[in-house]
Amino acid sequence: MNVENYRPIHELVPPTWTEGDILANSIHQHYYRTGGAKPPIVLLHGFMMVGLTWLRVAKALQREYDVIMPDARSHGRSAGPESGFSPQILASDVVALIHTLGLERPILLGHSNGAVTAARLAATEPGLARAAILVDPPLQAPRPPAGEQAGEQGGDFNDWFSGWLAWLQGLKSQTHAERVAAFAASWPHGQPVPPDEPLWPEEDLVPFVEAHALFNLDLFQQGVAYWSLNDYLEIVPQITCPILLITSGIQAGERVEASVQRLVSSWQNGRHVPMPGTGHMVSHGRSHDDFMAVLTNFLATSN
Question: What is the average pLDDT value for the chain, to the nearest integer?
């Protein structure tokens, strides 16, 4: 694919969608919304992503659903981590967003850390969500948190982390064309995709690139403990609404399988669909159509 033709993100957003900011849970939250008198579905992105990371999925859902795509705090154009940052706070942010926008029993669709947010909300706010769709949540022991006690990780880690932060900072001053070209040139090295994954189309790649450029680096300066997310497994049995768990091919091993079995054996009303051969960004690239088939089947049979 010729990335020179990849358009800026504002040209990819349909003109019928609305963009807004609300004050909810004491922070300004930014979101996009497809609108219409349809059942609401809230799409929750993963770490270092933005609401528009769901762009292609939202376009596929907008005919049947009012799709709401918020930027999580410290991500995109939402407020930063000054008032705190944790899985619990992120769930409270979404609860406040749902109430502020007046959404009636929305479906929650969360990817990665956004799936943790969806699970926490569904467990702690019974009756608020119609269903919880968990796309490749963390299912194994977390790696050392970037930015937290980095000095204890050793010189190699410190060198890598410093270089990574400098690269992220540099994205902020680059043009759209420069950013996209940089990601394309290193594809798929360092990306959460299989090694033979073709370069994504612009609706997948451009929001992914922009998310990295917009990420609030102050979050790392705060030294937040964010990667210890597996405790959400303990509260999944409290979820009363239907659950769909989608797992990628990139998460594998005995610990992952043990976590999956723990979820399957403990939830009240759940369904697990593995998608082998896929990367962490299950809804992107060549697996998009298969992902949408799984998603739409669940939505049609869980209402």
Answer: 91
d(CA 38, CA 30): 21
With contact defined as beta carbons under 8 Å apart, do 172 and 211 qualify? no
Residue 7 to residues 11, 162, 203, 206, 223, Cα–Cα distance (Å): 6, 31, 9, 8, 35
Q: Residue 281's closest CA among 208, 227, 176?
A: 208
Q: Residue 170 has which token pair?
A: 């540099």
Predicted TM-score (pTM) above 0.85: yes
| Chain centroid, CA 198 distance in Å | 21
Q: Would the pLDDT of 151 be above 60?
A: no
Cα angle for residues 127, 130, 133 (degrees, 5° grid):
120
Per-residue tokens: 15: 């003109």
In the chain, where are the structural domains located? 16-302
Task: Please determine, for residue 75, whether its predicted confidence score (pLDDT) is greater than 90.
Answer: yes
Token pair, residue 291, equals 């992902």
Helix (H, G, I), strand (E, B) or coil at 18: strand
Count other Cβ atoms within 10 Å, centred on residue 205: 22
Closest to 77 measured CA to CA, from 44, 29, 148? 29
Q: What is the end-to-end Cα distance of the chain in Å, rounded? A: 39
CA distance 92 to 123: 12
Closest alpha carbon to 265 in 246, 227, 237? 237
For residues 211 and 205, the answer to whether their CB atoms sit within 8 Å is no
Distance CA 48, CA 76 (A): 8
Query: Is CATH 3.40.50.1820 correct for 16-302?
Result: yes
Amino acid identity at 73:
R
The three-class DSSP label of residue 231 is helix
SS3 call for 52 = helix
Kindly report the number of other CB atoms within 10 A of residue 289's CB atom. Answer: 8
Report the C-alpha gap between 268 and 237 in whole angstroms: 6
Percent pLDDT > 70 in the chain is 91
How many angstroms separate the CA atoms of 85 and 67, rounded? Answer: 25
